[in-house]
């Protein structure tokens, strides 16, 4: 059995930390004793928040430098940022395809790359690829592809990061009531069945950090 993770005074970064799931992840980490910085494109009066566009590698480097300068370390990074689009591929614009991959895939890769360079043994990286990465769906083909690419990246990242003693978790929760579908960058969402409670999903992801887990497939999220 792995040693329980000690959250006390650990330095955590939650990307997409002002979103429906990111806010809850940050709150759960703080309740366990972490010092949490949130980052997103949104502005906030919270001094623990950094406004930055993480689609840019230069912006990510600046965020990392700020956190390390403030706290001297980086122990946990959770990427909860993402965008979604709906519609058949024959009506999906080039701009939509590019935005899905830039945010969901490229931004994730840039973030994990920069984070790993600032982490020591015992640190944890978390990516949220989602259930769509396990089985893609019509009307969500490009979104699903961007998330499947993220899952594939996380699989290889886990093996590379292990050499440095850094753990990687890929989380694939089923549809969750975060409101993301209502903020789609293109298309109209289908009528999804009721999703999971985001509080429970956030709690399950943080518990995976606590318990030393390395993979969270959709079946690991009990309704």
Describe the structure.
The protein is an alpha/beta fold. The chain has five helices and seven strands. The protein has helices at residues 22-31, 57-71, 94-116, 141-162, 198-211; strands spanning 11-15, 35-40, 49-51, 76-79, 124-128, 167-171, 215-216. Strands 3-2-1-4-5-6-7 form a seven-stranded parallel sheet, sandwiched between helices. Helix 1 links the parallel strand 1 and strand 2.
Secondary-structure class:
alpha/beta
Number of helices: 5
Shape: globular
Helix content: 25-40%
The Cα radius of gyration reads: 16 Å
Quick one: biggest sheet? 7 strands, parallel
Q: Span between N and C termini?
A: 26 Å
Average pLDDT taken over every residue: 95
Residue share in β-strands: 5-15%
What string, H for helix and E for strand, traces the elements in order? EHEEHEHEHEHE
> Strand order across the biggest sheet?
3-2-1-4-5-6-7
Q: How many DSSP E strands? A: 7
Which stretches are low in confidence, meaning pLDDT under 50 for 5 or more residues running? none
Write the layout of secondary structure elements.
Layout: E1 11-15, H1 22-31, E2 35-40, E3 49-51, H2 57-71, E4 76-79, H3 94-116, E5 124-128, H4 141-162, E6 167-171, H5 198-211, E7 215-216
Parallel strand pairs: 1-2, 1-4, 2-3, 4-5, 5-6, 6-7
Helix pairs in contact: 1-5, 2-3, 3-4
